[in-house]
Amino acid sequence: MKVYSIQLPNERAGTYRFVTILILLINCIAFSAVLINAPDKKIKITSALGAVLSLVPIIIFLFNLYLKRVIVYRTEISFILLSILWFLFGKYLFAISVLCFAAIGFYTSKKFKVIFSAEKILYPSFPVKTILWTDTNNVMLKDNVLTIDLKNNKLIQAVIEKGSADEIDEKEFNEFCLQQITAKAQRQ
Theoretical Cys-Cys bridge with 112: which of 8, 16, 104, 135, CB 3.0 to 4.6 Å? Predict the structure, then answer.
């Protein structure tokens, strides 16, 4: 059974990185303020840890940006640890906000792949959208643009990743999709 996997570009990645740095900076400033004003040594140590956990991903991001090296570091892990520290301080709204941002980060950093199988098409929305072949008029890949024409007059178009475009033979893919549409239409 033939299965095609076509990767779409993650257009939100740049925006997410900017917002991530901003939230990490806010956390670093907040933990530094707690560190400066803390009367207790235990609170000072915990807030210093929070400031460091906020600062490390920023430094890694700047290092990757300016030196063009790639150090893989999941900022979502820092967000989870920061939310635990906010819970320890009793700042539940901060903790939940940072934890929600970590969850969003896991979603936005994933690869968006459209999966075509003999049974259905899985489109990477939130939640994943299942498109049956009987619900499609046409599916075509041409010049690195994927087009899914649905029977309910909706049209889905997306430019696909360069690496994904190099792996797929357009003619073979289009023939596969046409076979699935005609086979499902004949069964109805």
Answer: 8
Q: What share of the chain is helix, strand, coil (3-state, %, to 5)?
A: 60, 20, 20
pLDDT in tens, 138-147: 899 988 898 9
Nearest to 182 by CA among 116, 134, 119: 134
Any idea what the Cα angle at residue 55 is, between residues 53 and 60, rounded to 5°?
105
Interval 75-89: pLDDT, tens = 888 999 999 999 999
Task: Match 């008029």 to its residue by tokens.
Answer: 137
Inter-residue contact 27 to 82 (CB < 8 Å): yes
pTM: 0.69
Return the SS3 of 127: coil
SS3 156: strand
